[in-house]
Amino acid sequence: MISFGRITIGELLDSTVDRYPDNDALVYPEYGIRYTYKEFQQECERVARGLMSLGIKRGEHIIVWATNVPQWVILQFACAKMGAVLVTANTHYKVFELEYLIKQSDSTTLLFTGGDMDKSTNEQTFVDIIYELCPELKDSVPGRLYSKRLPTLKNVLYIGEEKHAGMFNWDDLLEMSSSISELELQARQSSLNADDVINMQYTSGTTGFPKGVMLTHYNLVGNGISVGRCMNLGPEDRMCIPVPLFHCFGCVLGTLSCVAWGATMVPLQTFNPI
Fold this sequence. Notes:
Elements: H1 9-19, E1 24-28, E2 33-36, H2 37-53, E3 61-65, H3 70-82, E4 85-88, H4 95-105, E5 109-112, H5 126-133, E6 155-158, E7 168-169, H6 170-176, H7 182-190, E8 197-203, E9 211-216, H8 217-230, E10 238-241, H9 248-251, H10 255-261, E11 264-267
Helix pairs in contact: 1-3, 1-10, 2-3, 2-6, 8-10
């Protein structure tokens, strides 16, 4: 029986890397991605240093608004290593819902994918929604947004290669990581505590606006370990994860359970029953 103790999510990943460095950690056939646990750890730490280079502090809130792309999983563990609180956003949100989430969570940073326009309804893309919320963004220097409507929001980052006015993109984040040393990241991770809030998920009530549920490392690691134990997960297993990562089903019972027990994560970008 493995003894986990009171550890952070970053320490949980490190423990699994120590035990199974060459096992497959994350596989995305459609992207040609197959990270071993050691490679996955390195990618998460690179992104964690990129977030630190943006000036994001321990306990600062950042929103990830994206389908189950590889970067979502990397960001989950990158945030856990550098101490930013990951605020998960439903990919079906419209303008007023995203505005409420940003304001209510006091988030300073938004990372998002493009979103697909539904041509039958002329539904907005995520980029359209963000520019509607923050028209100032088009004339802003990336990282220096000042929005009257969303006063806490400073950084907007597009998860992809495309360049959009006022935003960083994923390549920018990776490049910025070089300004933060591995020792600086280690010091940040060492300062974290298992009782720190590391994730906020908005759960809708029946009579009011969604409420932000604050989840600690201890909450999430305990759930991941327990669920993995119930499923008898082990390093020889591979888990298909078709459910959205923005809910606990995906990012705790899915990814975190796999990491706790050394299993392989195989997410689907979007659910397709066929």
